[in-house]
Amino acid sequence: MREKATTLYLGPQHPGITGNMMIKLKVEGDTVVKAETHVGYLHRGFEKLMERRNWLQSFTIVCRICVPEPDPNELNYSRAVEEIEGREVPERAQWIRTMMMELSRMATYLLWFGGQNGSAGLYTMPQWSVGDRDYILDLFEELTGGRVYHMYIWPGGVRRDLPEGFTDRVLQTMDYLEKRLKQYDELMFANTVFQKRAQGVGWIDPAKAIEWGVVGPPLRAAGFKSDVRIDDPYLKYDELDFEVPTQTSSDVWGRALVRRAEFEQSISMVRQCIEKMPKGEVYNKIPNPMKWTVPAGDAYVKAESARGEFGYYVVSDGSNKPRRVHVKGPAYVHGVTLLENLLVGANIADVSFIMNSLGTCPPEIER
Amino acid sequence: MTDNKLEKEQKVVKHLEETFQNLTGKVVRERRVTVAVEKELIPSVLSYAKNQLGYIHFSHMSCVDWIEDEHFELVYILWSPEDKVQLLIKTLINRENPEIDNVDMIWRQANTYEREIREMYGIQFKGLVGREEFILEDWEGMPPMRRDFDTAEYIKEAYFGRPGREDAGNVREEIVKRSGEEIPDFAKKYSRD
Amino acid sequence: MAFFDIKGLVTPFTALKQFGKAPHTVTFPQKQKETAERYRGLHYNDLEKCIGCGNCSTICMNEAIDMIHVEGVEGGKGDSGLRPRVDNGRCCWCALCVEVCPTGSLNLTKDYIYVTPDADAFLWTPGVSNPDGKDDISFHSDVDTSLGMYNRVPMPELDGQERVKSFAEVMLYYSEEEARYEATRCISCGLCTEVCPDHMHIPEYINAIAQGNDEDAIRIIYDNNPLGELCGKVCTRRCEDVCAMQVRGDAVAIRWLKEYAVSRAETSDIIREIVNPEIKEPNGYKVGIIGAGPAGLTAGYYLALKGFDVTIYEANSHAGGMTMYGIPKYRLPIESLDKQIDYMKSIGVKIQFNTTVGKDITFDEIYKKHDAVFVGVGFQKPYRLGIEGEDAKGAFPAVNMLFDVNNGKTPDIGDKVVVIGGGNVAIDGARVSRRLGAEVTIMYRRRVQDMPADWEEIEGAEHEGVVIMPQTIPVEIITDDNNKVTGIKYLKAEMVDDGKGGRPRPVPIEGSETIMEVTSVIGAIGQEADYSFFTEEAMKQIEINRGRMVVDENQMTGMKGVFAGGDAVNRTADAISAIADGYRACKAIEKFLIKDIKD
């Protein structure tokens, strides 16, 4: 017997995801038959704002585009401007940037651990992982002066050099997080309840995955060894020794395993960065910011953020203000067309579970 | 191996230039190729790139408003996981009556990009099906990402400022008051704003 | 795995062992976490170090910073008098304001808690709202990390030993690339315009150069200075002493950028084409100017543009005054001066050369023939040294020698020259003597750091091999039977504190007489004006105080319709002050004659 269809509005506040997004669900019983994503709660108009601010002032805006992971934004903006202008970045700055990116990836994964489990009901994990994330945020505070919005990576290098004893504290934090991973394993990954909830849920057809624009951990969980760090290398990733883990189940469980494996890889990469970092300058100074012009041109740069391929398309018209900065976060595809298709046939209880496993981050959908 | 590093990129340019007329291509650097083509050929070029050349990943689609040249520039950014090359396909659309074919039958996620560009720039995509509102809600004005939309004006009309900052001074004016300097009008555009 | 996965059900309970552990959170507010050394908290501004340049307000991308008047802070030389105030509702604490502060006075502190029940109290004046903030400074910017461009582009110049062989221009001046780079250093605060006697529109023309619009720069310079290239080569550059960048680095090369801009116009015709001034119709009024020095030329130029009929009476055969006959060619080539003066003549300024007022024409005639008179005669008479033997052959004032050299003559100074004095004229005399082949020594009563000459000139002289003897007081010139100079007797002096907090005085050391063999003694201890051309009637009305004519703020003397300016009036005695006097006099003459002009 078919039940009557009801329309449910899920969101904009709901457990698990970082940001506000509403999904209009049409459900029959507790099965979703149609899903429609409504975004717009977080539109701050950054791209329009950047048209009236000069190149240096714009860099302070970009980190706010993605709330859980601001660093790929700063990195991509700086790399795009450097590519258009042809500005060299000193070696040490490249290594510091690499280390920042990996630390940021770890911080985002810790937040994701919290979100994923929050939407499953396992509330101990968020308490743990958000608390552990604070250690990484302490490192950021020491290095950049801010915990979440760093405004540290700017065109030409990074803003300040590492403080005294910073590398020791980073290594201590890495050791601590490695130990914690074992406890996360016992609580979450060995947990049969979580396994049963996650396996078989939110399955993406591997044959269509790339065509549908899936990137990041969901794509790797579908069996593709696809990672911007090895496909289109940037920073110092071609000098680091790391693996790109993949799974084949292409469901929420596979994605959780991929992220867990990458977390370990990140710890190892941070340790390598500290070992290999040379001494030297950290900044190739720009001229007077009010008069600094970038020659005409455009560039598309991408980075591997914790959620997937993060792209920046920057166009310069030769003046001292950007002509166009267009940000493409992974959630742009994951949160709209992909989600609308995946949710069909899913259980209401799994809606935010699936959303979280895709790494949906509404601020980057609408900037 | 003495062949150049840009072999794959040059092959793509050659392929596309030979297959389509009025298409010009350039290898920008390693892993970046740009081609420019007329807007009528966009669906064919995109299909060809996806099906024949292996550019199956639709990375991004963007629009730039060149108001002084009176056209919009649409950029489709594709990626080939096999060759590891990023292909940027650019086309120009007239600003007076902007319209171009919809391509979401080639990649379904293009639907979202096109909806946003339609909302933000006012470009009509022929055959596009999708809710009118994407990011903005109850927006009656001009498509806001266009260059002639003045955000400063909009703010003055839509919001009221918090009082308390009326006594803001201007350093140059303060100095000019004291010294009696008279800055000529044609020089004022070089003063700091 | 089987449906009943016992291990999978039980393992998560290992989390319970966390109960025994201490929490890693901090019981705020009893305990506070230590804030990082670089934390970006609320702003603190050192109100004394801050010069009110407004750069923080310009860079703030949220428009959160206003420049306001703060109690207890007065503006003045090198300080605009305004201080920043932050709107905490808009500030995002990006610290760009700290990175661009040229003096390093604006910093961020570790303080991040700001709680108040008053919803309108979101305005925060750093330094005033937190006077103790200086103990808490965390995010700061020193010269290496700051975004200011603190190093000036070095100026290429001819090698010291080589350049004494000729009168070729010493400074090679900026190329286009160097000038554009130097111009981008300027932060456009405008503090320099206040101390420039002429209030030139400095940030405007520097920005025009930075943007590549040299022609606009020339027009801006010519708005109130018709001798821009002259100033660009020899100005005393008081602007650079208060430049915001010199607080922690090198001042912007304002003078050399001016030279760069005007020298882009290579001939006077090109200047005419670029400046293309509006020349008003003749208004029927006649103005007479005595002296074609910078003061007279400036007054004449602007008066001619306003439609006045201007005649300048110049005693010498060439215009320029001290800039023509006092400044040596290696500092200011005659072609450069001629180009600027030719342009002024082309717009209608008439100059009568070889006309000495008092001899070839009387002051009375000029006063009656013209509706207003401007006197810019300068200080032409050199002071006497006041020592025995100074009338001998081979002892003469530097001013006379420079006059002769610039007129094309080569005076016979022998091969050992001593110059007495420490000002720019003395240095000019010394360096010219080097170029005439002599070994030169400068004798100055006080220490080198007390010398009033430009340090750039002193350095240039030392590179050219001039020997400077400080704390040296000459007492007698030794001559032979033909009354020709053979030597000079001098005493060494020691500096004695005058006890009243003023400059230490040189006191001759008893018994330290020494005689140095020299072939010429050149005196350069100052000049005074020659007012003998004034009629008795005029002298009754024009007040002379300590050798200078007294004028009101409109450059008018006690005699109605007689204006004055230049070295004979102002105390700073440099070209730019003279130009400023001429410009002000022009405006005053216009108001004086054309009664219904509004302001």
What's the layout of helices and strands?
The complex is a heterotrimer of chains A (367), B (193) and C (599).
Chain A: E1 5-10, E2 22-28, E3 31-38, H1 46-49, H2 55-62, H3 71-85, H4 91-120, H5 124-144, E4 153-154, E5 157-158, H6 166-189, H7 192-198, H8 206-209, H9 217-221, H10 228-231, H11 252-276, E6 297-305, E7 308-316, E8 322-328, H12 331-342, H13 351-357, H14 362-366
Antiparallel strand pairs in A: 1-2, 2-3, 4-5, 6-7, 7-8
Helix pairs in contact in A: 2-3, 4-5, 4-11, 4-13, 5-6, 6-11
Chain B: H1 7-19, E1 24-29, E2 32-36, H2 42-51, E3 57-66, E4 71-80, E5 85-94, E6 99-101, H3 110-121, E7 124-126, H4 151-158, H5 171-179
Parallel strand pairs in B: 2-5, 6-7
Antiparallel strand pairs in B: 1-2, 3-4, 4-5
Chain C: H1 6-10, E1 43-45, H2 55-59, E2 65-69, E3 82-87, H3 96-100, E4 106-109, E5 123-124, E6 137-139, H4 160-163, H5 176-184, H6 191-195, H7 202-210, H8 214-222, H9 228-234, H10 238-241, H11 254-263, H12 268-275, E7 286-290, H13 294-305, E8 309-313, H14 322-325, H15 334-346, E9 350-352, H16 363-369, E10 372-375, E11 381-382, E12 395-397, H17 398-406, E13 416-420, H18 424-435, E14 439-443, H19 455-463, E15 467-469, E16 472-479, E17 485-496, E18 505-508, E19 514-517, E20 520-523, E21 527-528, H20 536-541, E22 544-545, E23 548-549, E24 562-564, H21 575-593
Parallel strand pairs in C: 7-8, 7-10, 8-9, 10-24, 12-20, 13-14, 13-20, 14-15
Antiparallel strand pairs in C: 1-4, 2-3, 3-5, 4-6, 11-21, 16-17, 17-18, 17-19, 22-23
Please give a structural write-up.
The complex is a heterotrimer of chains A (about 375), B (about 190) and C (about 600). Chain A has a single domain (about 50-330), classed as Cytochrome-c3 Hydrogenase, chain B (Orthogonal Bundle), CATH 1.10.645.10. With about 375 residues, chain A is of the alpha+beta class. A three-stranded antiparallel beta sheet of chain A has the order 1-2-3. A three-stranded antiparallel beta sheet of chain A has the order 6-7-8, with helices on one face. A two-stranded antiparallel ribbon of chain A has the order 4-5. In chain A, strand 2 (about 20-30) and strand 3 (about 30-40) form a beta hairpin. Chain A has 14 helices and eight strands. Chain B has five helices and seven strands. Chain B is an alpha/beta fold and about 190 residues long. Chain B is elongated and about 70 Å long. Chain C has about 600 residues and is α/β, with parallel strands linked by helices. Helix content of chain C is about 30%, strand content about 15%. In chain C, helix 18 links the parallel strand 13 and strand 14 (about 440-445). Chain C starts with 5 loop residues before the first helix and ends in a 6-residue tail after the last helix.
